[in-house]
Specification:
alpha+beta, L,D-transpeptidase catalytic domain-like, four-stranded mixed β-sheet, about 15% helix
C-alpha cells in the first residue's frame, strides 16, 4: 500500500515538475502531442480526437497570412483572406508573454534548435540536468549544453517564433507559439519570409 502510494505521488510530482519547467523550447513534441481538445488522428489510447485543428490549404492559392489569438490559444491561417487552417496553440505564460502586434516571418528553419533552453548532458549524451535556461542554470562539470529541438521554426520577432512543441492546453512557453507538429509542418511549407503575422489578445 505504501509503495503504491509512493509511486502515485512520484508520478504526480513528476508531471507537475514537467509542466512548471517546460519552456518555449522545452517539452515533448510529436504529431500525437497531447493538448486541450485531444490529439490529432488516432493518438493515444483513450485521448479524444482533435476536433479543432485542421488544414485545407494545399490546393488553395493566394498570399498567406496568419492571425494568432492569445485568448483563444488558436492560430488562423489564410490564403488571400480565405481561412484554410486552424491550429490550437500554447503561447507564452504569464511573465513571459507572447508579444502582441503586427509582424512578418523573418526566418524559417526546419531543424531549429534552441540556443537558450535545453538540457545539460554528459559525454555519452545522457541528460544530467533537464529543462535548463543557460542564462540562469549553472553547467555541472563534465557536461555540455544540448538545445531543445524546435522543428518547423518560423521566427517573427527576436527570440519568438511559431514551431512544433508541447501543448498542455494553456499558455506555457517562454514566449514562443507552439503548435502540434502536423500543423507546424503545414504552416511552415505555406509561409515565406515576409508573410504577415498578427497577434492579438
Amino acid at each position: 500500500m505504501a509503495r503504491s502510494l509512493f509511486s502515485i505521488l512520484s508520478t504526480v510530482l513528476s508531471l507537475i515538475l514537467a509542466l512548471l519547467v517546460a519552456g518555449c523550447g522545452g517539452g515533448q513534441y510529436s504529431a500525437n502531442t497531447p493538448y486541450l481538445g485531444g490529439v490529432y488522428g488516432e493518438g493515444t489510447a483513450g485521448a479524444p480526437r482533435d476536433t479543432v485543428s485542421y488544414w485545407d490549404g494545399d490546393n488553395a492559392s493566394g498570399s498567406p497570412s496568419v492571425k494568432i489569438s492569445l485568448g483563444e490559444q488558436r492560430a488562423y491561417f489564410y490564403k488571400s483572406g480565405v481561412l484554410v487552417g486552424v491550429s490550437q496553440l500554447s503561447t507564452g505564460r504569464e511573465g513571459l508573454n507572447t508579444p502582441i502586434g503586427n509582424y512578418k516571418i523573418i526566418q524559417k528553419d526546419k531543424d531549429h534548435v534552441s540556443s537558450l533552453f535545453g538540457d545539460y548532458v554528459d559525454s555519452s549524451g545522457k541528460v544530467v540536468v533537464p529543462n535548463v535556461d543557460i542564462k540562469k542554470d549553472p553547467k555541472p562539470p563534465g557536461t555540455h549544453f544540448q538545445g531543445t529541438p524546435m522543428p518547423y521554426f518560423m521566427r517573427i520577432v527576436s527570440g519568438t517564433g511559431m514551431h512544433a512543441g508541447y501543448l498542455p492546453g494553456y499558455p506555457a512557453s517562454h514566449g514562443c507559439i507552439r503548435m502540434p507538429e502536423f500543423m507546424a509542418e503545414d504552416f511552415f511549407k505555406s509561409v515565406s519570409v515576409g508573410t504577415p503575422v498578427t497577434i492579438t489578445n
